[in-house]
Amino acid sequence: MKNPFEPSPAMRAVFGRRQRRRQHTAIETGFFELRSPSRVWGDYGSVLYDGMAAHLPHHDGMLSLERTAQGMNPITFPYPAPVFTQQGRQVLERIGVSNVAFHPVHPARIVDYDWTGWDLTAKYPSELPEEGEPENYILTRPHRQDLADALGSLWQMMPTGCKDGDISSGSSMCPSELTRLDSVKTGIESVRSQLESGLDVWMSRADVGEGKVIVSERIRDQLVEEFGEAIVVTPFTAYVFLE
Asked: Please, which of 14, 24, 83, 107 could form a disulfide with 148 given CB 3.0 to 4.6 Å?
């Protein structure tokens, strides 16, 4: 059986050319990347753990979320922004995160599909979706308003101080300078300025950092304590281009 997660030779060749295009170096930032535990099963795991929030247009200015009713953690990471349950939002408010705002999320398609008993250590999910397309875990099933109601209020988290549009657009992300910079000099200066800013949360623009969620050391341990296995926290390294 062909491994569905194995990149094709053509994709490996393209990736290799991109990597050789410009040399870069790494800067240890002192920040931490917050991400989903959904790395199991590739895109299959991502759809099951986090759902989808970019497939449908916004609804009255709100992010449109499509996901399974089962298995929703207090914090999830659908592209393009983290989504919190009411419980998850209350955690951030209790911790006292310095610079986040919350915007309501529209539960556009919440489906009945319980995958939570599957063996997460298995190489492949217990069931593959129709036609092998990850999104079909959701798109082939009807919306259940009663299950959407049971999830309660859902919230899109956005750092405050965003500079690229309205918070409801889904495209406004806070400073991306930590993710990719044009020189080592500006990289070091940017990291230093962010450390001194007193902010707790950053999000890189999707076009430069795949929508990375970056948090300060001040709140890292509290997030791990509160969210446990719902998140993965790793040291964040900024890659900057050599001059």
From this structure: 107
CA pair distance 194, 205, nearest whole angstrom: 16
HSE on the CB side for 123, CA within 13 Å? Answer: 6
Neighbours of 226 (CB within 10 A): 19
Taking only the tens place, the pLDDT of each residue in 160-214 is 754 433 333 333 345 444 445 555 555 566 666 666 677 888 876 544 445 678 8
Please tell me the distance from the alpha carbon of residue 21 to that of residue 23, in angstroms, as a whole number: 7
Provide the whole-model pTM: 0.77
Distant-in-sequence, close-in-space partners of 200: CB < 8 Å, separation ≥ 6? 97, 98, 99, 100, 215, 216, 218, 219
Sheet holding 83-85, edge to edge: 63-68, 100-111, 154-159, 83-85, 75-76
Q: Which residues contact 231 (CB under 8 A, 6 or more apart)?
A: 34, 35, 36, 37, 75, 223, 224
E strand spans, the chain: 24-35, 63-68, 75-76, 83-85, 100-111, 154-159, 180-181, 201-203, 213-215, 232-241
CB contact set of 201 (below 8 Å; sequence gap of 6+) = 97, 98, 99, 100, 157, 159, 174, 213, 214, 215, 216, 219
Nearest Cα to Cα of residue 144 among 72, 47, 68:
68
Tokens found for residue 175: 């400073």
Closest by alpha carbon to 81, among 196, 190, 164?
164
The 10s digit of each residue's pLDDT in 49-92 is 999 999 999 999 999 999 999 999 999 999 888 999 999 999 99
* Residue for token pair 């953690």: 73
